[in-house]
Structures are given as structure tokens and as C-alpha cells.
Design goal:
alpha/beta; Rossmann fold; Helicase, Ruva Protein, domain 3; 2 domains; 9 strands; about 50% helix; about 10% strand
């Protein structure tokens, strides 16, 4: 199994059981879930697990693709199709021939663009912009959307026929708050990746830090967890990451930690560490600048950081 797909919870185990079955087929898959749950990662995992693993995996960022470039980017163009078209250009569908096209955030497409996409999904054929010859492609299609996609279909904002073409196999990725058992192994995996990126020894979470991570609701899901851990790694001098070192988006780190202080009777030194970490983050890791904001010299700051990392 791909080591980047990390889980232990029953909720994710059920999802992965279906993933294992669907990956062995060429069925079209719709992955839904909140932002930051790992829809793109799961789409690529399905591709790598399947029979097309040695062919291209091409992502179409639907939310970031300007409407005027949609046809040219997806279907390609012939020379003279528009001002900048000086030679033939193969679009993403053609580039993915034999492999997989991942329609990331398909719910963001306008109704007119949805109609153009529908034909390709139905027929696996299209014409390049400015061309008349039909181009046939052998592709697998995986799409992702937010959890409200079915409501958008009922409201008329997303084409029902396109939805049913995409929703052959539906995989719902649960939010991180519904899979608390995954937070520990995910954190260990992320810290291992960060140790490779930034060098040095692998950071370890203290007991209080692990409890904080497990109790937090994670509105930003796995993406927020990764960002919080990266911030903590940058701000931590030693190998141990404690609870005050972890930055969270809902409220400041200080707000979360003060609440923890009341519940667990943290020392004044621990509370001091909270403010130091916040200032260090604001200073983008620049210790001299952080020391100036704190009104202490750099050597004193380093000593305090070392003490809090013990």
C-alpha cells in the first residue's frame, strides 16, 4: 500500500476497502469531501493502484481554469485557432490518453463548461479548438467535488446528467474530526516528511501535544494539520514539540493554549513559551527580529527555546 495514504480509523478503513475494489476497474469515480480532506491524494492513489499506473495522471484544476481557456487547455487547439495559437497544441485530455484525467473541483465549472465536458465523458471524443477532426481518447476519469454537490444538482447549479456520468462510484472522504484515530499516524507521517524537507532529526510530539491534536476539531482537515505541524517544526529548536508550539487556525495558538493551561495547570514557563512561539511565527522564524519584539537579546531567546524543547 502507498505509504502516503495513512489511516487507522474505521471510517477511513471502509473508504479504502471500496478504493481497493474500484482501483482494479476503469469505473468513473466521484470523490467528495470537505476542503483539505485529501481528495487529490486519493485520486492519484487510485490511479497508481490501477492498471493505468504506468501512464499519465493529468490534473484539471477546474476552479482555477479561466472559462476562455477551458477548451484550449482541455481539448487543445489547431494553428490559428486564436491569436496565440501558432502551432498545434495537445490539451490535457489528449495528453492523458491511456491514463487518468482528474477533474479537481468539478463543481466550480459554469453550466456552459459543464455541457462541453459532458460530451467528452460520454463519447471519449472531442475536436481541438479550431479543428474539425475528431480526436478519440482512452482515459479513466476521476472527479472531486465538495460535499454540497448533490444540493447543487437539486438547485439546478450543476447538470444532473453530468453528475450521474461522474457519480458511477462515489467515495466520500470523512472530515478529520470524524476520524480522530488517524490523527496520530498522520502526524507521525507528516513529521517524517518534514524532517526530510528541513533536515535534522525527526521531531516528536509530547503527550500534551498529542492530546491537543486529538481534541481539536480541525476545520481545515488534514491540510490544516500539516500546516500546524510545519509551523511547529520551524519554531521548535529541539526534537520535542509541545502543545504551546502548535499553531492552529481557529483562534490563535495562545487562545488554545491558555484554555489548555486552565484545564491542565500549566506552569508560567509554559505560558511564556506560548507568546514566544507566536512572536517567532510572526517574525517568520527570524530569531533576531523575534528577540527585538520580545525585548530580550538573541542569546536569552535561544536559551528559552531550548528550555521549552526539553
Amino acid at each position: 500500500m502507498d505509504p502516503s495514504v495513512v489511516y487507522r480509523s474505521m471510517a477511513m478503513s471502509k473508504v479504502m476497502e471500496l478504493v481497493e475494489r474500484v482501483a482494479a476497474t476503469d469505473a468513473t469515480v466521484l470523490i467528495t469531501g470537505e476542503s483539505g480532506t485529501g481528495k487529490s491524494l486519493l485520486a492519484e492513489y487510485i490511479h497508481r493502484l490501477g492498471g493505468r499506473r504506468d501512464r499519465s495522471f493529468v490534473t484539471v484544476p477546474c476552479a482555477n481554469l479561466p472559462a476562455e481557456l477551458f477548451e484550449s487547455e482541455l481539448f487543445g487547439h489547431e494553428p490559428g485557432a486564436h491569436t496565440d495559437a501558432v502551432e498545434r497544441h495537445a490539451g490535457k485530455f489528449e495528453a492523458a490518453n491511456g491514463g487518468t484525467v482528474f477533474l479537481d473541483g468539478v463543481g466550480a465549472l459554469s453550466p456552459s463548461l459543464q455541457a462541453k465536458l459532458l460530451r467528452v465523458i460520454q463519447e471519449r471524443a472531442f475536436e481541438r479548438l479550431g479543428g474539425t477532426q475528431s480526436v478519440n481518447v482512452d482515459i479513466r476519469i476521476i472527479a472531486s467535488a465538495g460535499e454540497t454537490i448533490e444540493q447543487e444538482v437539486r438547485a439546478g447549479g450543476f447538470r444532473e446528467d453530468l453528475f450521474y456520468r461522474l457519480n458511477v462510484v462515489h467515495l466520500r472522504l470523512p472530515p478529520l474530526r470524524e476520524r480522530a484515530d488517524d490523527i496520530g499516524p498522520l502526524s507521525s507521517h507528516i513529521l517524517q516528511q518534514l524532517s526530510v524537507r528541513y533536515g535534522g532529526s525527526k521531531r516528536r510530539l509530547t503527550t500534551d501535544a498529542r492530546r491537543l491534536l486529538r481534541s481539536y476539531p480541525w476545520p481545515g482537515n488534514v491540510r490544516e494539520l500539516a500546516n500546524a505541524l510545519e509551523s511547529a517544526v520551524i519554531a521548535t529548536e529541539g526534537s520535542r514539540i509541545d502543545a504551546p508550539s502548535i499553531g492552529l487556525q481557529r483562534g490563535t495558538t495562545a487562545e488554545v493554549s491558555i484554555r489548555q493551561a486552565f484545564e491542565r495547570q500549566w506552569s508560567l514557563e509554559a505560558l511564556e513559551a506560548v507568546y514566544i512561539r507566536e512572536v517567532l511565527k510572526a517574525a517568520r522564524g527570524n530569531k533576531s527580529r523575534a528577540a527585538a519584539i520580545l525585548g530580550i537579546n538573541r542569546k536569552t531567546l535561544l536559551e528559552k527555546l531550548k528550555r521549552s524543547a526539553r
